[in-house]
Amino acid sequence: MSVIIKVRRLGFTWETPDPFLFCAYHEDQYPKGNEELGPDAPLEGRNIGQDFISKDGWRMYHGNKVPGFPAHPHRGFETITIVQKGLVDHSDSLGAAGRFGNGDVQWMTAGRGVQHSEMFPLLNSEEENPFLLFQIWLNLPKSKKMVAPHFKMLWSEEIPKITITDQQGKLIEITLIAGTLQNQKAETPAPDSWASNSENEVLIATIKMAPNAQYTFKKASEGINRSIFFFKGNEIESDGYKIPVNHELITVAHKELTIKNGDKESHFLLLQGKPINESVVQQGPFVMNTQQEIREAILEYQHNQFGKWPWPTYDHVHDKSKGRFALYPDGNEITKDQ
């Protein structure tokens, strides 16, 4: 029996297995920044507010001056935001804020409801501002849908980095966001997360393979879902298939799978976990179990905006001089070197 169940081409957003909802992949070659931390380039010809076309190699998304996503609500799931390149400015309706990136990860449990903005400030005014981000939506089970909102930072300096070599001495580098791999354990996830219970075998990692390297994904338990997203490189061989870049491998997790890389460095995102196996009803930023719960979420948001918006603008960015930091709702602030 083949270990690969299906090979699926990657779209703008990536389809993901239960317990995940989807993954958004953003890669933009932003130009130099201006005084407002936006692109020092003309915005003519862009559909400002809905700019998702990669004109000149970059997008404004919903931003008017600074690229990104101004204030918007969430309920019923979690966002795990992995920023490999560039920076994100976070602000939310709980009064929390942060600037993170260049290897940092933000883990946010929306729970019963939160508004937040995610803006991409272009701090470098002398050179280009390359940007690469994954945002993974991880579902919450019905019993956790209405927990209190929570966010935590997984700082790059504290995230486990695993370096191994194959039998030919070729290098494989793994950044472990969640779960256990190669006898190493990731940082603790948010407390109400499906990933917080090790029995759910949630595993999130990015993997970089040198040209011609070979790596074997070890067995998980039967019934676990696993997908491997091949997003940079040229071609790989696995399970008798030759697979070009920009494809997802949906695999049988309780069997080993070996990938042999081609002649170009390759990059992967690994998502694995025990399925929640509950009904999913989604309407935009709300993910619940029934249509009635969606209606209740919309009505509550219209009534109280999940705590109002305490920031000067809906596309708030922090001062250019600010380094990486996390300000929590209780007023505690953690700062990191730029």
TrEMBL record:
CDD domains: cupin_pirin_N (cd02909). Residues 206-307 form the Pirin C-terminal domain. It comes from the Bacteria. Gene3D superfamilies: Jelly Rolls. Belongs to the pirin family. SUPFAM superfamilies: RmlC-like cupins. InterPro entries: Pirin, Pirin_C_dom, Pirin_N_dom, RmlC-like_jellyroll, RmlC_Cupin_sf. Residues 61-138 form the Pirin N-terminal domain. This is Pirin. It holds the Pfam family Pirin.
